[in-house]
Design goal:
It contains 14 helices and eight strands. It has 343 residues and is α+β, with helices and mostly antiparallel strands. Helix 2 packs across helix 3 and helix 8 (116-127) crosses helix 11.
Length: 343
């Protein structure tokens, strides 16, 4: 029996069928879910996906919304360039594709944020067209099944895996097959402690036969990440409004609202003195905040400013905003900032 046939049969009894993006499925739902699921677990994505689809139920609604509105519904999900690319792409879809996701791989890949595997998922799951995929789960399944050793991020191994994925993808029932192989990676062929005895393709799996499932995929040693030390100004006025500042359009948290930030306490003091046109006030140190990004660790030292008696705020600047803690959901705010305020 073929690899694809075994997976399709397995999926009928054991695959996932109740995920929110699988209900009344269409290419738009598949696209949004695939972008959200990049580098993010299903359990984390589900509540964000539900609220996002409720607010932006189709391409045209997404396209006519402001970036600020889109970012507010993405706030806390991380990797914010994904949301910006969704928004950019929605506008292109309205301008060039009549508000619909195109049905060809080349057209999809030309759009911001859509790579070869995401395009394959949209085509197969959204349009039921034959298209291979290669997300993290599929890479793990195929590398174990075909005994692909070494670093899977190397171009030579990526090329091998795409070739295998193309070869194993069936001519029909492609939507079910691609969902099945993703489910197999998520539920059975896990990174650690895979449930090999329950795997429908274990008899043909080279890693299972040779007891190599612990070694494949190869665990690549992570490089130690540098640390970035910053100071945050936590200014609170007499009405318990909090001062936030819109970040630049480049770098981490680009375009989001966060606390005024500086690499030195002196620069931060100069900023608040300019903002409030006040005499120097003492800043109270609060417990340090630590947050890990993919390429560095952030150490933020919050400094509390009681701004009750220095309200000559330079409100002409659109970079700054006073806001109640209860209204944070209306803005795109990074999760560490949100968590800090909730505490």
């Amino acid at each position: 029996m073929k690899f694809s046939t075994k997976l399709i049969r397995w999926h009928k009894t054991d695959g996932r069928k109740d995920l929110p993006w699988q209900q009344k499925k269409n290419p738009y739902k598949v696209w949004v879910s695939e972008i959200m699921l990049q580098q993010t677990q299903v359990s984390t994505v589900i509540p964000f996906y539900i609220s996002f689809l409720k607010r932006f139920p189709n391409v045209k609604e997404l396209a006519k919304s402001s970036e600020e509105d889109v970012m507010s519904f993405w706030s806390g999900l991380g990797y914010y360039s994904r949301a910006r690319n969704l928004h950019k792409t929605s506008k292109l879809l309205v301008d060039k594709f009549n508000g619909k996701l195109p049905g060809s791989a080349s057209a999809l890949i030309s759009l911001p944020g859509i790579g070869k595997s995401t395009a394959g998922a949209i085509l197969s799951l959204g349009y039921d067209k034959r298209a291979p995929i290669l997300d993290a789960n599929v890479k793990r399944v195929l590398s174990r099944h075909e005994q692909i050793e070494g670093d899977l991020s190397k171009s030579s191994n990526i090329k091998k895996l795409w070739s295998i994925s193309e070869r194993l993808t069936p001519l029909d029932q492609c939507a079910i097959y691609n969902q099945a192989i993703m489910d197999l990676g998520a539920l059975i062929c896990k990174r650690s402690n895979p449930k090999c005895k329950r795997c429908p393709v274990k008899k043909d799996c080279l890693s299972f036969k040779k007891n190599l499932t612990k070694d494949i995929p190869k665990k690549v040693d992570k490089k130690s990440k540098p640390s970035k030390n910053v100071y945050w100004l936590i200014a609170i006025d007499k009405d318990e409004n909090i001062l936030l500042k819109k970040r630049n359009k480049e770098g981490v948290w680009a375009g989001l609202w966060s606390f005024p930030e500086s690499s030195s306490k002196e620069k931060l003091r100069n900023e608040y003195q300019t903002l409030f046109k006040s005499k120097q006030k003492k800043l109270k140190s609060l417990p340090e905040i630590n947050h890990s990004f993919s390429h560095f660790n952030l150490r933020a030292k919050p400094l509390l400013l009681n701004a009750e008696n220095c309200m000559q705020h330079n409100s002409n600047s659109r970079k700054y905003k006073w806001i109640k803690k209860t209204r944070l959901k209306s803005l795109g705010v990074p999760s560490p900032v949100k968590r800090f305020l909730e505490k």
